[in-house]
Specification:
The protein is α+β, with helices and mostly antiparallel strands and 469 residues long. The chain is 49% helix and 7% strand. It has helices at 14-26, 35-56, 59-68, 86-95, 113-128, 132-153, 166-179, 184-197, 205-208, 215-233, 241-249, 288-301, 317-322, 330-333, 337-347, 358-365, 415-443, 452-458; strands spanning 72-75, 105-106, 276-277, 308-315, 368-372, 386-392, 397-402. InterPro entries: MmgE/PrpD_sf, MmgE/PrpD_sf_1, MmgE/PrpD_sf_2, MmgE_PrpD, MmgE_PrpD_C, MmgE_PrpD_N.
Length: 469
């Protein structure tokens, strides 16, 4: 390929691929989208707002807001009743994304497009007084571009975390759709520009309980915002950076043609947003097969902590790679099979409060063993398999294996499960009536003339719930 810069590792016709993605993004039209795509987009917007709102109530996030002390502006900061400047708003809202480990995911490739898009586009939409359909067009187009870039990257290298990588490129482009009024050339420049910045983060901060980890999505979101602003100002990108730099050095197996899968003549012919998934547990998705298995056993067998003699957990290889056997805080606990299984047994269900009481969980965690189940490896990447076997003091042994957890495209989340998650998370900050109002505002966006109703519903009137969990 030709690029304006020398790089012998350039491996695909990057400029034409990038421009076709950009053209598809700017041609995304809410009115022309299939109803199932519209529904999925609104569902993911609601899910993302709920996750960020509940995350903002975590003590770590309250301390971060106090430390940054955002200056006034037009943009919502979750956990605050006063608007802030866009840079602080995107930083603070982005920081909430991983706190509870409940963010959305994309089932065909590791990454979390919807919530990073929501964090950036909400702030930009508020600052620019964008029409709701402009925001929704950018959201859907950004998801589609992000997903295809992820497919082209072939995944995330083993040593890197799946926050703040290929998704950032798509979010940068989506933000540019708003800042540059649908200019495909500008959007293409944002794709290459974000690629050249090459964000990549250490995978192992999670199991170490290193809470600066929460700055990964914050840095990714502010990077996307700044790329869009830079392109708007006239800063230029090196054409071909997506393939020649990012694809060559930060991909797990670059495949340029995959980025145009499901596109025809610069338009979406199918929608990858339908391959998004919802996290029903406050834990790493690699543990969700295990989390589903213990939930099913508890529901079917009705046993309690005092009934348990021992528990054996088997994980697929990638689950074992991230598993933390001795978590020191709730971040690490969300990456721990022992902690999440113990919390489910002790409290009857796995939810955030149970992961804050690690000392109380320790006696039960000591009864749990975790090992690799090679027989489970064949089910990835679409599956997140896990097996839980419980030996009861009565002598009975009960076991459950789950290959595809609930919330994934193979076992879709039900409307009641999805809404229960959103209402529970929003209710922690806004109360039941406030949560209902936000739900109504989100689903009214296609008919709304401005974002003011949604913005007003998201501003906290009074103190955030002190427990936050």
């Amino acid at each position: 390929m030709d690029s304006d810069g020398s790089n012998s590792r350039a491996v695909e016709d990057g400029p034409s691929t990038v421009f076709q993605l950009a053209r598809a993004m700017v041609s995304t039209n809410w009115e022309a989208l299939p109803p199932e795509v519209q529904n999925m987009a609104l569902n993911l917007v609601l899910d993302s707002l709920a996750v960020m709102a509940a995350g903002s109530a975590h003590p770590d996030m309250r301390y971060l807001r106090e430390s940054i002390a955002p200056s006034p502006g037009p943009c919502t900061v979750f956990g605050d009743s006063v608007g802030a400047n866009i840079q602080d708003a995107v930083l603070l809202n982005g920081s909430t994304i991983t706190v509870l480990q409940r963010q959305d995911g994309y089932s065909r490739m590791k990454g979390h497009p919807a919530i990073q898009l929501a964090a950036v586009l909400l702030a930009l939409g508020e600052e620019r007084k964008a029409h709701p359909k402009e925001l929704l067009n950018a959201f859907v187009g950004g998801y589609e571009a992000s997903a295809r870039i992820g497919l082209g990257m072939g995944g995330v290298p083993f040593h890197l975390h799946d926050i703040g990588n290929w998704v950032t490129i798509g979010v940068s482009a989506a933000a540019t759709v708003l800042t540059c009024s649908g200019d495909a050339t500008a959007v293409a420049s944002a794709i290459d520009g974000a690629s050249s910045l090459g964000l990549h983060f250490d995978r192992w901060t999670t199991t170490a309980g290193a809470t600066l980890h929460h700055l990964y999505p914050a840095v990714a979101c502010t990077t996307a915002l700044n790329v869009a602003r830079g392109v708007k100002s006239g800063l230029s990108a090196r054409v071909g950076s997506l393939s020649s730099f990012y694809g060559s050095f930060l991909a797990d197996g670059f495949n340029g043609p995959a980025m145009l899968e499901g596109t025809v003549s610069g338009a979406w012919a199918k929608y990858e947003i339908l391959n998004g998934y919802y996290k029903l547990y406050p834990s790493c998705a690699h543990l969700h097969g295990v989390n589903d298995a213990i939930a099913a056993l508890l529901e079917d067998e009705r046993f309690r902590e005092d009934d348990v003699r021992r528990v054996d957990v088997r994980l697929f290889d990638e689950g074992m790679a991230i598993d933390c056997s001795a978590p020191k805080n709730d971040l690490a606990a969300r990456f721990s099979a022992k902690a999440t299984v113990a919390a489910a047994i002790r409290f009857g269900t796995l939810d955030d409060p149970g992961l804050l009481e690690l000392e109380a969980l320790k006696p039960l965690m000591d009864l749990i063993s975790v090992s690799h189940g090679p027989e489970l490896d064949v089910h990835k990447p679409s599956g997140r398999p896990g097996t839980v076997k419980v030996e009861l003091k009565s002598g009975r042994v009960i076991s459950r294996t789950v290959i595809h957890p609930r919330g994934t495209p193979r076992v879709p989340v039900t409307d009641s499960q999805r809404l229960a998650k959103a209402m529970s998370l929003l209710g922690r900050v806004y109360g039941a009536s406030g949560a209902e109002r936000i739900l109504e505002e989100v689903y009214s966006l296609p008919q709304a003339s401005s974002l003011e109703g949604l913005t007003a519903s998201l501003r906290v009137h009074g103190p955030v719930c002190s427990g936050g969990m």
